[in-house]
Amino acid sequence: MSRAPKPLPLPTKQARQIWLRAQRLDTRAPFGEGAQAVAEATAHLGYVQIDTINVIERCHHHILFSRIPSYRRADLRHAQSVDKSVFEYWTHALSYVPANDFRFFLPAMREHKREGHKWYASVTPADTRKVMRLLRAGPLTIRDIEDDVLTEKEHLWQSRKPSKRALQLAFYTGVATISARQGMLKTYDLMIRHFGWDKLPKPASPTETTAYLLDRALRSQGVVSLDSVCHLDAPSKKAVGALIAARVRRGELVPVAIEGAGKQEHWAAPETLEPAEVSPELVHILSPFDPLIIQRKRTNLIFGYNHLFEAYVPKHKRKLGYFALPVLVGDEIVAALDLKTDRQARKLLMQKWTWIGQGKKTAGRKELKQKIEDELDRFERFQLAE
What we know:
386 residues; alpha+beta; four-stranded antiparallel beta sheet
């Protein structure tokens, strides 16, 4: 029996540069512009998370803006509703995912159709029949449906309208999809009618889905761990771990030891480990839901930055602010800015500026602050556009 290869040492700086290259944050406009850039960015990242908080622009627009400098909200609307190159479904959270990846989500849809969904156990057959009758007549929003009797919420984010719950259940089972979105108001349509299909595609097999999860992570993360591949998806770890071991035996992946990672194992494709310099002139003001930030332990390991999401923390206990945004300059996170968009006054408000890591050093602080303020000007224009 051959011995497992010894992990290659990987300094955190090199790990940062590899991850930034994989996230396409190492260059100014990696995907071009327009709806096609939205499709390509989503395909490369694997998903773009959606969230309702809009103290600044919602995170799905923000994540795309970080990689598409000319991004407009209309580009995402076009990709979703006209080109139909992206669609909404659940990854570790509600997200935009590439339409070409649809078959990898079909097994989950079928499971929800077969076994129900724990969030919508209260949906009755009568609620479902009502919603399906309306959906067959054409696309609709929840505002188009009148419910005579409202019900109590089963959890904080749930609607009191039984019809909305039935619509959401139809979404999770793959019967309906979100064909358009105006802010957070969703238009639902029958999945088959929206995509113009005669029938749903063939679902991916468990083996194909495991390979999809690993390949998606390798493409968008560069260096991976079981936790990063299976973020909030513990049941997939066993199969993904077995696939990683098989690829290591074939020489397709190599184990690496990231500085400071201790016993946590990481892997990468050999070609990924080539040098990946990042220009110190590049500045990105990131969403707290950005793929570079959302896996907090990974971000802390590789960037030495422990992001605090304090929107639900009492004001007197906050350290960074209500909705702090990490600031990436080159390959370092140097600050966290708590911003708020005053749409009525048409300006971006600075609530709090916190220096982080290398940003705490006084040498070169003036030049660093100027770089960030230049990017803040561009960020403000994006916030107030359209």
